[in-house]
Design goal:
This protein is α/β, with parallel strands linked by helices and 260 residues long. The chain contains six helices and twelve strands. It is globular.
């Protein structure tokens, strides 16, 4: 285990030092830019996730670039990609000019995929919060719970059973910030304890009967998919979860595979 962790740390340091790590095939369906912006909550997760993204790119024949460098958020660079994946990241490190380039990318029909920590954006501007769709408010301790797949017409959920047992950090959210948002998965709060919050009796994370976990929308000319799942590194080795992520990427990049 120590050897594996050492390899992951080295990989993460490598990605941090270079402008971008790219993986391409002779025939790419589309191009994906994964943006990571480490914080103390998710540093341990991102190296494993990046390794699994490389496997996804190999399996599904798409071009993959992984970067932590915000200077890639310029029009000339973003034009190379079909979808931007914010892996545990927000726009907090982007300059005003870089944010405008990101907006133009979406307005020109680009795709966005947010994973877990991307919704921790309460201090971000209104545009990004609406792109994500909802804003993280709180979470309890990591626990096992049962999710309900309420919409199986989307590529991110069509492979899933009606119910899905899962262990994660269950984020709670604000109300929807956009009107055309479509929820894909909810979590049943009766299957875990939303008030299990490290002994803090004043901290309550329940949302009630309707607790969304994943959703998608068309927003400002582009496509946006978000999943709350993915706090722990081991989760990125789960085939069902990886197919969930890839379904979101595929739809956000192409607009295809949606059955209504």
């Amino acid at each position: 285990m120590k050897k594996i962790n050492y390899v992951l740390v080295i990989l993460f340091m490598f990605i941090s030092m270079v402008p971008a790590f790219s993986q391409n095939h002779s025939r790419n369906q589309f191009q994906v830019l994964v943006y990571t912006s480490p914080d103390r909550w998710h540093n341990i997760t991102e190296p494993t996730a990046i390794l699994e993204f490389q496997k996804l790119a190999n399996r599904h024949a798409f071009g993959l670039t992984v970067t932590q460098v915000v200077s890639n958020f310029v029009d000339e660079t973003l034009l190379k990609y079909d979808v931007l994946v914010f892996l545990q990241s927000t726009t907090r490190d982007l300059s005003a000019e870089q944010l405008e380039s990101f907006k133009r990318f979406i307005r020109n029909g680009g795709g966005f995929v947010g994973i877990h920590g991307a919704s921790a954006c309460r201090r971000e501007g209104e545009w990004f919060r609406k792109l994500v769709g909802r804003t993280f408010t709180d979470h309890p301790e990591e626990q096992t719970a049962v999710m309900h797949v309420v919409d199986k017409n989307h590529p991110s959920t069509m492979h899933l059973a009606d119910r899905w047992i899962w262990t994660d950090e269950w984020y709670s959210y604000t109300e929807a910030l956009t009107e055309n948002q479509k929820v894909l998965i909810t979590v049943d709060e009766s299957t875990y304890d939303p008030d299990r919050t490290w002994g803090d009796e004043n901290r309550h994370t329940a949302m009630g009967a309707f607790h969304p976990i994943a959703w998608y929308q068309e927003f400002d000319g582009g496509r946006s998919f978000y999943t709350s799942l993915g706090h722990m590194p081991e989760l990125f080795k789960d085939p069902l979860f990886l197919d969930h992520i890839y379904g979101g990427i595929y739809w956000a990049a192409t607009g295809l595979g949606l059955y209504e």
